[in-house]
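Notes from the pairing session

We agreed to fold both candidates in a single pass and log them together. This is the raw record for the first candidate, unedited. Please don't reformat it; downstream parsing expects exactly this layout.

Candidate A
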Amino acid sequence: MQKVREILKYDKRKLGTFSQFNKNKSELKKAFDNLKGVENKPDFEIVYNTILEFISDNL
């Protein structure tokens, strides 16, 4: 997470509001489940909750 913060600061970027992130969880899951060729792909809920925690801490 710290690395992402460093990159955002270096590139002078800000995180958006991610308003669609919560609204479109089912669509995100469908797209994630359709990813092909990804080795050791974690469970969607793990990825989603990790991203949710990150954006919640940084908005």
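Candidate B (folded immediately after A)
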Amino acid sequence: MAKKRRYRIDSGPSGSEITIGNISPSFLKYWAGENNQNPAPYQLAGRGDLVDFLFFSEEFNNHHDIPSIRKNEQNTKWYEIDDIEHIYGCFLGDFFTIHEVPPNGNNDYYQDPDCIKIIPELKNQRIINYNSNPVGSTSSLHPFVLICHTMDKVKDFDHLLHEKHGASSTAFSSWIMQTDNPLDTKSIAISKIHVSGIRTLKDPAKGLKGGRTALEVVEKIWYKNKKINNLHLNGWGSNRFGAGVALGQLNK
């Protein structure tokens, strides 16, 4: 009887945390401005911009004229405005590497010198599209939303892994899978690996081809149509080097 083969799949080093949640019309109008006539997107003179407000909100405690993010609620952290979506994953389109590791599971972070490099096929992408200029909209069917995303990169993962596993990695996400046969670059089993993801799409005026992609991240990874389990938390040990926000109205 052939023994099981055990593999670790590593993503690239970068990824993002994405949150989408409902906001009040007054919050939207305050930051976007009537008919989007502010000098710069989501910026108020002498107040900084919306990124500052959301990610460094303590600096705005004295500005009581800023409307609450949600009606009749105290302002909260950006990552808690997530009643529609909250996902944390590696970026789509990066190379993934496949490392064969000991089958008994005692060294899942082994770095295979003969690792296989692939770009997995994308299937089952969820698309969230929105209009970025909703001020003055007469439609009450689609909610006003706040979309936040971060830009994270693994830079300091090695020491965390050394402390816990005596290993190293620069992968934003890692997964463990088992097969009955060995994998190689000519193996048909490689084609059975695919990912599902989420994509935010801005202003799809002419359908999906007319919009602009804001961000694409991996949501899950599959082998032979079965979901593969994460080896560690996405972004463990990563550093945040950027963030972005958008105000809009969802198209459902």
